[in-house]
Structures are given as C-alpha cells and as structure tokens.
Design a protein that fits this description.
Protein name: Peptidase
Keywords: Hydrolase, Metal-binding, Metalloprotease, Protease, Signal, Zinc
Number of domains: 1
Largest sheet: 3 strands, mixed
Family: Belongs to the peptidase M48 family.
Helix content: 55-70%
Number of strands: 5
InterPro entries: Mito/Outer_Membr_Metalloprot, Peptidase_M48
Strand content: 5-15%
Order of helices and strands: HEEHHEEEHHHHHHH
Domain Peptidase M48: 60-246
Structural class: mainly alpha
Length: 267
C-alpha cells in the first residue's frame, strides 16, 4: 500500500509539471511545487541560515551590500519586484546566494574578490539570475520526478535539514525540499545565470565589463578553478571569453542606463 501511495504521489507530481522556456530560450521542466511554496521554502532556508551563521555588524559594509542589491533588483520584471531581504554574514569564504521569495545572502569574504561596486553587482546579479530563471523550481521538479521517487527519498535522508527518524514524514519532506533549494546549480544553469546577471547589472547602471575582472579576481584568490563554491561553474578561461564578448554587446544598454540616471553610488 505504501508503494502504491508513493507511486500515486510521484505520478501526480509528474502530471503537474510543465514545460517552460528559460530567459535564454532553454526548455525547462518546472512546476512540481507552486511559486508560493518555493517562496516559503526560500524564506525558511534563509531564516535557518541567519539562525546558524553570525551576521556582520559592520554598518558600512551592510549599507554597501544593500545598496547594490536594491539597485540590481530595481531592474527586475514586475513579477519579481517584491521587497528583497538581504543579509551580510561574517564569513571569510567568498560566497553569495539568492533564494526564491526575494532573499539574498552575502558573505563578507566576497569583498576579497568583488573589489568595487560593479564587481559586487556582478556577483549579486548572477545569484538573482538563478532565481528569476527558475533554477530552484527546475531542480526540485527534476528531483521529484525521478523514477519511483528514489531521488526525493535520497534527498530526504541526506538533507542537511533532516529532522531525524522520529519526525513525521511530512516534516522530513519539507526538510528535503529546503535541501534541494540550496543544492549547487549545474553548469547549464550557471551559464544562464551569467547571461541574465550580466544583462541585469548593465541595465542597473553597473559596468558589465567588471564581471570579467571579478572572475579574474576569483581565479587569483582560489587558484585555477577559483573558490570551491564555483566548482560547478563553467571552465574559467572559457567563461572569461564569454563574459568579455557579452560585455561588449551590453555596453549600449549600460550607457543608456547611465544616461537615464541609473548611476549607482554604493561605495
């Protein structure tokens, strides 16, 4: 009976999925959970991150980071224009993330590689690019649609947010979904977030050429592959070429943004 119920649940999930087109024209499989559920999962994961990790009390750095977040998110399409919440964590690893529901987390260590406001915008816009490209939705949908539900069961067991064997199955399911929210992105998604993020930073009035400088700094700090958190990203040398070529094409959008008065002065 349990196996029949599981099969029925998986069949329902698969039937509920839909084919969508990503911002770069890539076909996506999404819809295993609703946007409201995604937003809730993002909010819960963000709350746990803030509960587990010390936040920076540096007022200047907080204001700087929030200024960049606000400038970037102001250029999002209307459906993504909800109030974005940001947190600066006192952590020396050069990391950042964005979650459904309008959440952005930045580690103080990012300032080692993002050495001006344009480079910080490149990081933040890239992470927000994952959200607006529905990569979390895509990842959860893919995992929940695996054969016989084995993938989601594995996520239940292995999720860092698991509540223990004594917890109810429904609670464990929620923990697994949070774990999926935070899993690394694949290379297709990383490349797509590069495209979306660079377009977004240019429209916000940040120099898209600085995305190249950011990546050069990452290589300098982390070696040939950059910091460990970028291990799923495209090959760094190829990425430099792609970012540079794209920046050239984005200069008119950047210059138009500046003429329109979008000239962020964050720090």
């Amino acid at each position: 009976m349990k196996h029949l119920l599981l099969a029925g649940a998986i069949a329902t999930v698969v039937a509920a999925c839909a084919t969508a087109t990503s911002p770069t024209g890539r076909t996506q499989r999404v819809g295993a959970v609703s946007q409201a559920e995604l937003n809730q999962l993002g909010a819960e994961a963000f709350a746990q991150a803030k509960a587990k990790n010390r936040q920076s009390s540096d007022a200047r750095q907080n204001a700087y980071m929030r200024c960049v977040v606000n400038a970037v998110t102001s250029q999002l399409p209307a459906e993504w224009q909800a109030q974005w919440d940001a947190a600066l964590f006192a952590d020396e690893s050069p990391n950042a993330f964005a979650l459904p529901g309008g959440k952005v987390g930045v580690n103080t260590g990012i300032f080692k590689v993002a050495r001006n406001q344009d480079q910080l915008a490149a990081v933040i816009a890239h992470e927000i690019g994952h959200v607006v490209s529905r990569h979390h939705d895509e990842r959860i949908t893919r995992q929940m649609g695996t054969q016989a539900g084995l993938g989601i069961l594995g996520a239940l067991v292995g999720s860092q947010y698991g509540q223990g064997a004594a917890q109810a199955t429904s609670q464990l399911g929620g923990a697994a979904a949070q774990g999926l929210i935070l899993l690394p992105n694949n290379r297709d998604q990383e490349s797509e977030a590069d495209v979306v993020g660079q377009q977004l930073m240019a429209s916000a009035g940040f120099d898209p050429r600085q995305a190249v400088n950011l990546w050069e700094n990452m290589i300098e700090v982390g070696g040939s592959r950059g910091p460990e958190w970028l291990s799923t990203h495209p090959d760094p040398r190829a990425r430099l070429d792609e970012l540079g070529n794209r920046a050239t094409g984005l200069m008119p959008a950047y210059e138009q943004a500046r003429r329109a008065g979008r000239s962020p002065k964050c720090g």
